[in-house]
Amino acid sequence: MVRKQLDREAVRALLPRRDPQGHKGNYGRLLLLCGSRGYTGAAYLAAMGALRCGAGLVYLGVPESIYAIAAVKLTEPVVFPLPDDHGRLSAEAAEEVSGRLEQMDAVLLGCGLGQSPGVFAVVKRVLREAKCPVVLDADGINVLSGHKDILLERNAPTILTPHPGEFARFGGRIGADRMTAAGIYARQWNSIVVLKGHGTCVTDGTTGYRNPTGNPGMAVGGSGDLLAGMITGLLGQGLKPLEAAACGVWLHGAAGDLCAQELGQYAMLPTDMLMRLPGLLP
User: What pLDDT, in 10s, does the model give residues 112-151?
Assistant: First the structure.
């Protein structure tokens, strides 16, 4: 495996230039399916992470029972309700989601969704029908753990963003060399893997990036939701999936490092990281 490392100059060189004549449709149409009762923050952080990384249009689908909360919290994304069952997406949501996929440049599934038969039905439908890249995070990974073969059916890129616990539940084994472990997993499941943790590893099984940024202050609920949204935002603007994932991870960690310097590792929050992104982007 070819191993690489990013720095600020390399990340900026990979980011697409903004067309002076461009409009919002030029910078990615994204579909985010996130949140459930008690987990509206996950939807907020994912959507805002995508927008702060330059996405043009973000469509956020949430369970109907949390729609009012999400719509008040989020003014920039287009928030819409989906059928739910006890606060989580129901199987009926899959049909409406299916009708939106054709127009999208990237899809994010999983942040705060919870696990249920309805959530699984939606995840399965998206993975089978989406012709654009799909980012699978958190419960999107967990709900698929017994049905991993669906990943092998996809002809479009899939990015998996597990932390070590999710990696293990999905069948991955972490040894002394985390990059090698992530590479085996990536090849086995036809995916790009973002194995989170100290020195996050991003690989498609052939090329790997080990991230030098980040710190323990980022180990707080919501940090992963922010990262998933950022990667999706970069995907929607046309970055290749491996580079979108690697750049998102570097920017996420760099924002965390700025927070640690200014606020300390104990006090920093994912919303603080969100607000540091403008200083890292062109």
Answer: 999 999 999 999 999 999 999 999 999 999 999 889 999 9
What total of structural domains would you count in the chain?
A: 1
**Which burial class, exposed, middle or buried, applies to 46 when counting CB atoms under 10 A from its CB (0-12, 13-18, 19+)?**
buried
Exposure of 62 by Cβ count < 10 A (0-12 exposed, 13-18 middle, 19+ buried)? buried
* Contact by Cβ (8 Å): 90, 84: yes
Least confident of 71-85, 98-112, 164-178, 217-231: 164-178
DSSP category for residue 2: E
What is the DSSP annotation of 179-209?
Answer: HHHHHHHHHHTTSEEEE-STT-EEE-SSEEE
Is residue 17 situated within a structural domain? no
**In this structure, is residue 62 part of a structural domain?**
yes
Measured N-to-C along each axis, helices 40-52 and 223-236 cross at an angle, to the nearest 10 degrees, of: 40
The CATH number of whichever domain residue 39 belongs to comes to: 3.40.1190.20
Full residue range of the structural domain in which residue 42 is found: 2-12+25-277
Backbone angles phi, psi at 57, to 5 degrees: -135, 125
Greatest Cα-to-Cα distance within the chain, rounded to the nearest angstrom: 49
Q: Specify if 20 maps to a domain.
A: no
As a whole number of angstroms, the distance between CA 26 and CA 21 comes to 10
Angle at 152 between CA 146 and CA 156, to 5 degrees: 125
Q: Are 41 and 66 in contact (CB under 8 A)?
A: no
Model confidence, pTM: 0.98
CB-based contacts of 150, cutoff 8 Å, min separation 6: 124, 127, 128, 144
3-class DSSP state for residue 8? helix
